[in-house]
Design brief:
Bound molecules: calcium ion
Largest sheet: 6 strands, antiparallel
Order of helices and strands: HEEEEEEEEEEEEEH
Strand content: 25-35%
Distance between the termini: 13 Å
Structural class: alpha+beta
Strand order of the largest sheet: 2-5-6-13-8-11
Shape: elongated
Helix content: 10-25%
């Protein structure tokens, strides 16, 4: 029969480990770009859609804001394949896609962003996957990543083969300000409709939410209560 003291010590050791194992939810909506409205993108096709902020039309990427002139290019097995699901994003999108201009308006480096409600001082773990576009020079493949306007990373590189992707995961810890904090991805380098790819963005609290601790404490009390009843019987 395990003693109450042994049980308490075991739980004291196990609780922090259990806390680390508790999965926390992704604060980013539609981080894999699989959800979009107003169009269908079959395998072998791509299109440019707007952000939810835009008033241009009805094709948009759910959950994300985007550059209102260039939108965001979504691809399904074109110039590579998605890292997660079917769809991935390219941010050097297209000439004046929503204004009807062809090859006359400023091309084409675009951006997407999303604001999330954070707790002040809390650490959040950012993860995303980047790939250079195949057969495109590194000087044209940049995607810059910003947290509240501060540059976290300049992603760049090159890969051979027009249908090649070379996905690589990047991870950062960022700090919440207790308001709406903004994560932004922006194409950089040569603006020529060919650029780096992005997929599978997530942002999760690095430690469990207070509610999770409360649930765990409730669970510990329940275990202690059962142990006491058994001992009393
Ligand atoms: Ca995806
Ligand atoms: Ca480019």
């Amino acid at each position: 029969m395990i003693s109450l003291r042994t049980l308490a010590v075991t739980l004291a050791i196990a609780a922090p480990l259990a806390a680390q194992a508790v999965p926390t939810s992704n604060l980013i909506t539609n981080g894999s770009f699989e959800t979009y409205t107003g169009t269908t993108i079959n395998s072998g096709h791509w299109t440019v859609v707007e952000g939810e902020n835009s008033s241009h039309g009805s094709k948009y990427l759910n959950g994300w804001q985007a550059d209102a002139t260039h939108g965001v290019e979504l691809r399904h097995n074109v110039a590579g394949s998605a890292q997660d699901g079917n769809i991935f994003a390219e941010l050097d999108s297209h000439y004046g896609y929503f204004t009807g201009n062809t090859h006359t308006s400023p091309c084409c480096n675009s951006w997407i962003s999303q604001s999330v409600d954070t707790d002040v001082g809390r650490i959040y773990h950012l993860s995303y996957w980047y790939s250079p576009r195949g057969n495109v020079a590194s000087a044209s493949n940049d995607i810059n990543v910003y947290w509240n306007g501060n540059l976290l990373k300049n992603n760049t590189g090159s890969v051979s083969g027009s249908n090649s992707t070379a996905w690589q995961q990047f991870e950062f810890d960022v700090t919440g300000t207790g308001g709406w904090d903004t994560l932004k991805f922006a194409a950089g380098g040569t603006a020529d409709t060919y650029g780096g790819s992005l997929d599978n963005v997530s942002l999760v609290a690095a430690v469990p939410e207070p509610e999770t601790y409360a649930l765990m404490l409730a669970g510990l009390f329940a275990v202690g209560f059962v142990a006491r009843r058994r001992q009393a019987q």
